[in-house]
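EI: anyone free to look at a 522-residue chain?
SC: sure, send it
EI:
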Amino acid sequence: MKITYLFPITAALLILLFYLGLPDLKNLPQKEDFLPQGSHWTRRDSLFLSLLTLVYAAVAFSNLGDMQAPQTVRSLDGESAVVTLDGEYSIDRAMIYTGIGQGSYTFEYSADGEKWYGAAYFEQGHAALLKWQELDLEDAPNMAVRYVRICGTGAAEIGEVALFNAYGELLPISSDCPELCDEQALIPAEATYLNSSYFDEIYHARTAYEHLHGTAPYETSHPPLGKVIMSLGIAIFGMVPFGWRVMGALAGILMLPAMYLLGKQLTKKSSFAFAAALMLALDCQHFTQTRIATIDSYPVLFILFSWLFMLRFMQRDIVRLPLKKLLPDLALSGLFMGLGIASKWIGVYSGAGLAVAFFWTIFRHMRMAAASAHLLKTDKSLSDEDRKILTLRDQTTMKRVLVICLWCLLFFVAIPLAIYLLAYIPYFAYAHFDNLKDYLTAVWNAQLSMFSYHSKPGLGMDHPFYSPWYEWIFNQRPMYYASPTYVNTPGWSYAIWCFGNPAIWSAALVGFAYTVFMWAKR
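SC: here you go
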């Protein structure tokens, strides 16, 4: 389905959902009273959520990436390898599959194995990793070739060499370095996003692989938990495009239940919960971002769940309910907040919002306690039952608030800090510390390095691909992930852009303004 079809389809679905939800809209809570506890889950919710999640999962996992790629690699630092053809051929195209590491290679031709002619030079920098690379043979001699010699410098790894004749046929080869030609069946016709890394996968997929194997990580500009989670997919499926993308896609799928639960908890209405999850499923940015091996999917998933449990706490009566009913929601909110921060620092911004929501809730209860005390003194017509409830609220609110705040030091400070520190164990698996102090010092220095990186001009804050959040709302500058020349199939070209679905984001602006207006009015 063409992406342009998605916008009118989304707009039509939004209009339909609006009219279907009108009856529920009239029945939403109108006061600041506590909403009914729980989310009023029904079989209809289970059916709606299951169908939506399964359909989205089928789409998200399809064409995610190849499940095979060269696995044996060789670094030729200061060495050379000779590739031998089974006869003399004119080489029209040549590709290599790059591993990790940086360096350069010189390719030379020979007909007899004694006299060599320069054919190509390839520089394997940090952006040329884990992908099929086409060699530039424009300056290669026009001759029949029997041998190709590859001379390397640096730590760059090659996984496979592919040579083609003028008819596009793969030429049979052997080599004194078997890693270069032992997986010829995996050679594709061309490089695509299905068989090669693109955009920031060159950093994050590589670093996930390094965490898995306990070597020094290359990408250190973000906390490590996202890459650690990514490494689970690599451990299961191998160092292949599907393997380094599958956990992010799974996180994107799990966001749908999270969004549905948020909508249901907030409104108690199945129609609005389904609308929220469906809009997320139809959002272009969500779909694109969760199918690339970057870390952004994981903190967003954790942020959604942290707000779900904070919302559950906000809707409870902290005076009349026992602590065992209140603390699990706060504990889970703090747990997911910690996981989000350990994945990316955007979790800190969400944590600040959680703090505002928590203290706003505490303020509401303190205000209710003050109102209860006032009513007990001034209203002589109160029933015994009402007087009992108001007395309980007046006398126990501050004690309960103090106890909850003390528990929150554990839930929102100690536990997130512990998660953050533990997340660095795979990061420093290559190092050996004599004591805990040395480990903590290394973690602290890593934080200083991250902050320094994101503060430098041209890197974290104003690099060529940077666009501030307020531009996203109007799709002023979408993120460019892969260029139209990425695939050269005759008659076709494509690009991978990351931007929000205009039908959803435009409607969301109106909805947000309406929500703020109604909140101020009520």
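EI: The two ends are 44 Å apart (CA to CA).
SC: 👍
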